[in-house]
């Protein structure tokens, strides 16, 4: 591919990206810029091998802190030392033993994925491709398949489209109905409920998430589906939708009565994507609670027995960006249940992601010897660390 430069209004990333991984794969640097944010993505043989960003919140040190791999204070000290030594920050923290190389790669890959996915949503700004790669020196290289990144980015775009079709706009405010929240809400949900009670807008709720707007949107959507957050000026159902919504409600009710809770959750969510229908909220809450109870025993059986193999590079193509994010979260969480309850994708989606990690062989179970198990923290290389 020759060098080119254009505007994102005409050359959106979802249209451009296949050209970089379809045969023959292209080597080079892609610059995407909008306002004060400038990002560079480095491609080689169909893989993303490097990424940089001018956005302060995307600094690798902050990403390491958000993922609980390296605390913020030590990260800041290490950054200053790396700058003084003239060594890339990632290389420095690995060479000094502050972060294991595998964990650094997890953070770098998460950082690169989220930056690229964000650019897929840009409708203005500049895009430029330059063939050939600059020398990467001592930098730690990534190996993310562009085909898999493109697949996950399109899924993210669809997720955002559904979200913004549901709410009137960024200035939407919400009524709060705590009686419809689950008995024990996650810390992120509690923060959103408190902000909404103070009159925060939807854009402010999304900005409050330390893990980024997507995670904030997922928490908001979960609270909305339960009926704990309701838009003050909701979009109503479209003309002609009433009959279809009634049919979906009947179906959801039958699924709950039949014990098919996972399907009931999905159908109730379909109704709630059209309008905040009280009966759909009720069915969603009931199905979600029953499904969580049904999963609780299976999840409890994993605690103290789950361990992780190092993630192969490149990662198995069957794993999505959410699966890989959960992999990192699980490695830094005391219990499996805690990790699944505190991820924005939802407990059911997180459980499915965990199953895919197990099918891919990167999450494994130690044999059950029948002996009583103490609470344990999973350790990436198979040795349980007992929490006394």
Shape: globular
Q: What's the count of strands?
A: 12
Order of helices and strands: EHHEEEHHHHEEHEHHHEHHHEHHHEEE
Mean pLDDT across all residues, rounded? 86
Global structural class: alpha+beta
> In order across it, which strands form the biggest sheet?
1-5-2-3-4-6
Biggest sheet: strands, sense, closure? 6 strands, antiparallel
Count of alpha and pi helical runs: 16
Strand content bin:
5-15%
Low-confidence stretches at least 5 residues in length (pLDDT < 50)?
373-388
Radius of gyration: 22 Å
Quickly count the domains. Answer: 3
**In angstroms, what separates the terminal alpha carbons?**
58 Å
Helix content: 40-55%
Write structural notes for this entry.
The protein has 388 residues and is α+β, with helices and mostly antiparallel strands. It has three domains: 4-157, no CATH class; 162-293, no CATH class; 301-386, no CATH class. The protein has 16 helices and twelve strands. Strands 1-5-2-3-4-6 form a six-stranded antiparallel β-sheet. α12 (261-274) packs antiparallel against α13 and α14 crosses α16. The longest helix is centred in the C-terminal third of the chain and has 23 residues, at 278-300. The model is unreliable at 373-388 (pLDDT under 50). Pfam families: DUF4388 (PF14332). Residues 22-161 form the PatA-like N-terminal domain. InterPro entries: PatA-like_N, T2SS_E_N_sf.
Structure summarized in a few sentences:
By secondary structure, the protein is an alpha+beta fold.
What tags apply to this protein structure?
388 residues; alpha+beta; 49% helix; 13% strand; globular
